[in-house]
Structures are given as structure tokens and as C-alpha cells.
Write a sequence for this structure.
């Protein structure tokens, strides 16, 4: 089975490792990626890091075409009928997909959908619709699979891997004395500044002794706020947080942090209202609270931490999603 990673995003490394492992026991894996991507996985074809530089958008698109052309040689030389693109550039792949399906009519092509299905962006949606209908879209959430299927495209649900983190140390209070009364954890800095201020005020103005640890543009501490560019003890923080905050509007893409939180923590997840958060709220009932629903409350943080929710059902929901994934994998690749 051929896995091609044209974008080789650093943030995709954990996902790619877990995703490839779903197939490694029953298929010989041929992995093609940037020469620094997943160093512990053997690569049969590497792309120079300069090829995935995004400094110039125009030349980036041209380089993506070059990567796709380079991958043709591995596809041609493999007997495997399955070729999975772990990510893709929308413009180059939408055009190249027709060429691929034409010269390899006996191959089955798949793409993993991360953030390429954007119905609200007319131009991106146009390129998405142009992708060959012979390509099957691997969707990491069932509601995305339903939306893409409605367009007449072929889609397959395979759940995002649930990275489980157990509490690995008890020295959090030594490293973060601000957390003695508990803490909220916001592990992403890629958010709107207005939302960031709302989240900060949620903690700063609360009567509850609860700190906010979040990924920011620099390292500093001020009162209840602790900002760091990198959290080395991320697994421990995810599994120990009183509240997980994921404020981005994901719409038709998924959050790896969400799945890690569901698997590892017994805490409420605070999210912005969007298609993705609404879908997850309906599956993991009581686990997700929308930021917008807190408007007007005197002390939202006190309200959140005071909620009594039984999270024991999460394990059964995760098990059901994994079982559906196993059934889909069996029908698609092992029948």
C-alpha cells in the first residue's frame, strides 16, 4: 500500500504514524514524504524540504505538481492497487487527479480530508468539486462523510485516531504553582485575537482559583495566565486539565486535540459554535459546551467547573467509532 504525504506538515506527524499503523500489519507499506517527516518510518521516496516551503504561494503550487509527478514512479513500480494521499494541495491535486486516474485505471486512489473541504469558499469549493470522482475521500468524522457524499463524491469514514495520554507525573504544581486550584488548558495559539481575549477574561475575571495555560507567541506569566510557545509536558496537561479549550471554528475539519481530550481527560471541552463542535456535541453528549452559550453569565468559569457530568460513556462511544472504522477498513481494503 502506497502512502504519499505531499504537504508533510509537522502537525500531521502523530496522525500519519497512527493512520499508517492501521494498515501496516496486513499491507507492505511504501511511504513517500519530506525527508524530515516521520524519521522512524522507512521512506521509499523522499522530497527535499525546500519543495514544501510556503514562502511563495505560486512556486509552492508548482512544487506540489513536481512532488505529484515524482510520486508517479513509485505508483507505477508498485503492485499494490491502493494509493493513499495523506494530505494534498487543493489546486494541484484537483487538476492532477484526472491524469492519475487516466494513466492508472486499475489503481484505487484515496485522499485524507484535513481542511480541504471548505463549502463557504467558492474558489476552494470549485477546485474540490473538480477532483476526479474516481478518487475516494477519507473523512475523519461521519458528518463530513455525509456532506461529501451528498455532492455525488465517493467517501469513506475512518475515525481520527484517539491518542490516549495518562497522567505521567505529579509535579505540575511545582512547575506551574498557578495551577494549585486547577487549570484550563488551551493548547493552540492559532486563534482569533478577540476570542483569545474572551478566553483570558473567562479566567481572569472569575472568582474561582483556576489558572489558564495556553500556547502563545512568547513565554510569560501574569497572575492566573501562563503563556508558553511549547509545552513539553503536553500529555500530562491534557490528562490533568480541569477544562480543555478549543476555540477555533473548525467547520468541516477535525481537531486532533479534541480526540486526545476525549480519550485522555475527564473534563469538559469548551469550543466555538461551528459545524464540527455541533457534531461532536451530539455524539459526546454533555462533554462539549459552546463559548457562545456562556454569554451573559456572571462567572462562566464557575458555571463550567460546577457542572456534574458523567464521562464514563465516552469509552463506549470511542469503542463504537473504532468498530465502525474497523468494519469500513475490512470492507474497503480486505474484502
Amino acid at each position: 500500500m502506497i502512502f504519499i504525504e505531499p504537504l508533510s506538515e509537522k502537525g500531521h506527524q502523530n496522525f500519519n504514524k497512527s493512520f499508517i499503523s492501521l494498515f501496516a500489519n496486513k499491507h507492505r507499506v511504501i511511504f513517500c514524504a519530506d525527508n524530515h517527516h516521520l524519521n522512524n518510518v522507512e521512506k521509499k521516496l523522499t522530497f527535499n524540504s525546500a519543495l514544501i516551503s510556503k514562502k511563495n504561494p505560486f512556486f509552492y503550487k508548482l512544487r506540489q505538481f513536481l512532488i505529484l509527478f515524482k510520486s508517479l514512479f513509485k505508483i507505477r513500480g508498485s503492485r499494490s492497487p491502493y494509493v493513499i494521499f495523506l494530505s494534498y494541495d487543493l489546486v494541484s491535486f484537483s487538476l492532477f487527479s484526472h491524469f492519475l486516474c487516466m494513466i492508472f485505471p486499475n489503481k484505487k486512489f484515496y485522499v485524507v480530508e484535513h481542511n480541504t473541504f471548505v463549502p463557504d469558499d467558492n474558489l476552494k469549493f470549485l477546485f474540490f468539486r473538480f477532483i476526479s470522482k474516481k478518487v475516494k475521500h477519507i473523512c475523519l468524522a461521519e458528518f463530513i462523510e455525509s456532506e461529501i457524499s451528498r455532492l455525488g463524491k465517493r467517501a469513506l469514514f475512518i475515525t481520527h485516531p484517539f491518542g490516549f495520554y495518562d497522567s505521567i507525573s505529579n509535579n505540575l504544581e511545582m512547575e506551574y504553582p498557578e495551577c494549585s486550584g486547577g487549570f484550563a488548558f488551551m493548547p493552540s495559539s492559532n486563534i482569533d485575537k478577540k476570542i483569545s481575549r474572551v478566553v483570558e477574561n473567562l479566567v481572569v475575571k472569575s472568582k474561582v482559583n483556576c489558572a489558564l495555560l495556553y500556547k502563545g507567541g512568547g513565554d510569560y506569566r501574569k497572575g492566573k495566565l501562563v503563556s508558553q510557545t511549547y509545552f513539553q509536558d503536553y500529555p500530562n496537561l491534557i490528562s490533568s486539565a480541569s477544562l480543555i479549550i478549543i476555540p477555533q471554528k473548525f467547520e468541516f475539519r477535525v481537531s486532533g486535540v479534541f480526540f486526545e481530550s476525549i480519550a485522555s481527560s475527564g473534563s469538559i471541552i469548551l469550543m466555538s459554535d461551528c459545524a464540527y463542535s455541533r457534531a461532536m456535541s451530539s455524539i459526546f453528549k454533555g462533554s462539549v459546551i459552546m463559548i457562545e452559550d456562556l454569554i451573559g453569565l456572571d462567572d462562566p468559569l464557575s458555571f463550567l467547573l460546577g457542572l456534574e457530568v458523567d464521562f464514563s460513556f465516552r469509552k463506549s462511544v470511542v469503542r463504537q467509532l473504532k468498530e465502525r472504522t474497523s468494519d469500513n477498513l475490512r470492507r474497503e481494503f480486505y474484502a
Q: What stands out?
A: The chain has a mean pLDDT of 88.
